Each structure stands twice: as C-alpha cells, then as structure tokens.
Give the backbone structure.
Amino acid sequence: MPRYHSLGKIPPKRHTIFKDAEGHFLYEELFGTIGFDGMSTLLYHTQRPTQVKEIMASYSVAPKIAVEKNMRSISLRGFEVPPVDDYLKSRIPILVNGDCQISLAAPKKSLTGYFYKNTDADEVIFVHRGSGKLRTMLGNVDFEYGGPLNDQELDAVTLYILSWESGQPRFIYPTPTIDTRIALTPPPGIDGDPNYGAQLFAENCALCHGTSGEGRIGANLSKGWPSIRPDLRVKSVIESGVPGSVMPAWSQANGGPLSDQDINDITAYILTFSSSNTESATQETAAGPLRGWPVWIIIIGVFILIIVAVVYYSRQQSQQD
C-alpha cells in the first residue's frame, strides 16, 4: 500500500503558492511515470523545471540495424564493448525492437558535466562491474554489482509478502485509472471533495478495496452504512484503522500520511458508492411490481390470504349445515 514520505519544507496544501524563507517563489512539479495516476512525487524547485537555458547541437541516437529479422543464435561478447569517456556516447545498442532496446556500455568517466533524463522511455540499468553513486534530484543512491537489498530489508519484504498471503489474494492489481472528466457531486451534508477524493482513493485505497469499493483484500465499501452519520463512521475508520486487521491508521495524527482534508475528501468519495447503489436499488424496485419488496410485506400478504380462505371455508360449511 503506498505511503507518503516528505523531505524538507513543503506547503500545508498542494497546488498552492509556496515561497522560500527569503520570499522567492518555489515552482511545483508533479513527477510520475503514468501521468496523474499511480505513484508520484511532488517536487518544489527554485528554478522553473520547464525553463530552457540553451539549445545545443543535436545528433541522432537511432540504432543502426545490422541484421533485419534475425533467426540465428548469436553469442554476444558484452565485456568486450569498447570503453568511451562520455556515459551517453558509450551506450551501444545490440538488440532492438519496437518496444525495447538493450544496450551495452563501458563509460570511462563519471557524468559530471550535465544532467541527463530519458524523456522517451523508462531505463533499467544492470551493473556488472564497478561501483559508484547515482545522483538525482530525489537523492543519491550508491550502486555496485550484486543485489541492492541487505538482510534487514529482505526481512521487511518477507513480512510484507506474508501479510499479503494472510489476506489470500489471487491477483495483485495495478492502481486503477480514475476518469477525472466525470464530475462527482458530494452527498448532502458531507464536508469533502469527492473528485479529489477519487484521486487519493486510487493512490492509497483501491489496491485493497477495489476500483469502485467492491472489495478485494480489504472490505467492501460499496454498501449502505447503518449509521445516522455515516461520514463520521467512515472517517473514524480511515483515521484510526481497524485493530487486528490489515487496515492501518491513515491520519497524520496517528502516524499516517493523510491530512484531515484528505480524509474528508476520501470519505466524500466513498459515500458516493452507497448513494449510487441506493439510486440503482430504487430504479430496480420501480421496474417490476414485486421486485425489491420487503420480505415481511409478502409474509403478511400470504397470512391474510390464508385467513380469508379459512373464513370463506367456514361460512360455506355453515350454509351447508
């Protein structure tokens, strides 16, 4: 389940004007891999991230295909790739198709003269020799040949996997996409924005509770809430969690990542599930003469018919006597 992590000074509310201690504007950037959905990082820059300082000479990095539609088995001697000073120029494509490009590289010097970002594709780098430090705007990461996890981290991952196993999941679903074009109306008397709550729900809740709250590992939320103030009940569960279950506490006061307003927004979104189900039930009841009738009304009707039949039979017997 995704968790928020903050570093440095950040504004109390996202997407608002934010300045540093000297009164200079800080520029916000939402950095992610799939647009406004999924895991992302909210960054604040001293300079505009879209600002263009200089346009320098360009050159083609398109791979040159040596063999089209190859069907032969080929032995590639990767460790014999020629060393090159520049990191980017050292990369030599060896296998390519329309979706993936595999390259080998043997850079001789560290990349210190410029910053690099691949704006066309994701990159996965396997280090076979050497060690170093990956320096990014999100922090520095030491790398070397071998696995990146130590014994303590492996134990933590194992416990996390076991917690999934205890819930008996069948599939691990990707974070669903929320259609932000559909404007949601908050239920009457609810203090929260369900449209923003939908985004928070997709990021933090949908993995366990389902895209529409239908329930997976977590509880089914697309139901009626037997309470005079269902918003208070839902909000309380989000804030404090459910002891003895996999549902954690989400409020910042209880060590979670969500603010009070975030919880209000998620609550408003969750309650749209039950309101939409109520409308569906009302429409279904109106569709047929018996559909949706309470069971006790049917029982009373049958009981009245039995009494009428008994009285009618008794009168017939009296008239014959």
Summary: Strands lie at 27-32, 40-45, 92-96, 101-104, 131-136, 139-144. The chain has three domains: 1-50, 77-148, 166-301. The helical segments are 151-166, 194-204, 206-209, 230-240, 260-287, 295-320. The first strand starts at residue 27 and ends at 32.
